[in-house]
Amino acid sequence: MEPIFEKDIEEILPQVVAWRRHFHQYPESSFNEVATTEFLLNEIEKLGNVKITRPMETGLVARLEGALPGPTIALRADIDALKMTELTGLEYASKNEGVMHACGHDSHTAMLLGAVSILSKNQQNLKGNFVFIFQPAEEFPPGGAIAMVEANVLDGVDAILGQHVSSITQVGQVGILAGASSANTDCFEIVVKGRGGHASTPNLCIDPIPVAMQIVTAMQQIVPRNISPNDKAVLSVTRINGGTADNIIPDTVIIGGTVRTYTKENREKIYERICSIAAKISAAENCEGTVKYTWGYPSTVNTPAYVEAITALGEELYGEGTVVTMEPSMGGEDFAYYLEKVPGCFMYLGVKNAEKGCIYPGHNTKFTIDEDAFSMGITMMLNGALCFQKLVEEQKKEA
Ligand code: NI
């Protein structure tokens, strides 16, 4: 099988690289993607035949109607960056202080913009419709996906495809897996309230610090002693704050952290254990322990038939061994919300290349990618969308 749009992709690649470098230079944090949205708006308006809507303050949705009737496929890119300082030393490193595209969303945005341009140019030969979701705020819960879904951007959509660059997958490969590919991503904050006073008279105080230590220690047992050894779960205490001086016992200590699971049962069990430990250990020591729990993104669950379609496509276009089965990620991904509404899948585009120094993981200050992956990324998105159309049609026939 010849990849469709091969020539168009080859032609647009330098432009996609330029777009990506532009986004990389001017990264914007979650919900603040004003200039990025403006840039996308200008570029997409130029195409002339793509309808734009703006259901959120930042980000946008572009719609293209093919000349012939057919299924509607959504393609999604996230457009936000992270609040961190870039240390890559790249020529086109971030010019926005304290913000960095360290998760590759600049590439996702540029590749999807390339995909819109190519499909727009080929409108007369297309069947069905295409919805391009340029979503803000993937990195910051509640995230942009849930708002996009609530704004009904998936109305009439039959299936969805998303992709993320992967720093653990070699350039030239695509990673994917059926079922849960990302975790339920929740976080907690425990406030241990005692009664402060002078460090020399602990008998007149209720010192929350040793109580907080007991809570942190007890929490280490939650996963190994409550979750089946066959399941995966992580609980990390990542911050503990209390006190201001060496001679003052503080009133309170705050403990914060993250919980990652794949199933609803484990998600709820860990929540209950945290609440119980915080309240009961505090009570035993005359403190008050309260938990603020933030239920984050649900697990991204790929539809097996769509995973199979992408796998077959990748192998057909690029040969056997191109599509590798990923380990489920403990990371979060708000693409989950789209997949709760429509079938589809989320794939990983390999951007690792040791020869070019692209070895740092996402969210690292030195994270870089191999831009040679873009050709495959756009090819898989475009051909994947057409593949999904076929799959939807087959399924409709069968039904
Ligand atoms: Ni990301």
Short characterization:
This protein has 10 helices and 16 strands.
Explain what this protein looks like in three dimensions.
This protein is α/β, with parallel strands linked by helices and 399 residues long. It has 2 domains: 6-182 and 299-398, Aminopeptidase; 184-294, 2-Layer Sandwich (Alpha-Beta Plaits), CATH 3.30.70. Helix content is 35%, strand content 25%. The protein is built from 10 helices and 16 strands. The protein has helices at 6-25, 34-47, 105-121, 145-150, 208-219, 222-226, 264-284, 304-318, 336-339, 374-398; strands spanning 51-53, 60-65, 68-78, 127-135, 159-170, 174-176, 179-180, 184-193, 197-198, 233-242, 248-249, 252-261, 288-294, 301-302, 323-325, 344-352. It has an 8-stranded mixed beta sheet. Helix 1 crosses helix 10 and helix 8 (304-318) packs across helix 10. The longest helix has 25 residues, at 374-398. The two termini are 28 Å apart. The relative contact order is 0.19. The model has no long low-confidence stretch (mean pLDDT 96). Bound molecules: nickel (II) ion. Nickel (II) ion (NI) is lined by residues 103, 105, 138, 164.
Percent helix, as a range, is: 25-40%
Tell me the fraction of residues in β-strands, as a range. Answer: 25-35%
Mean pLDDT: 96
The spatial strand order of the largest sheet comes to 1-2-4-3-5-16-6-15
Order of helices and strands: HHEEEHEHEEEEEHHEEEHEEHEHEH
Return the CATH topology of the largest domain: Aminopeptidase
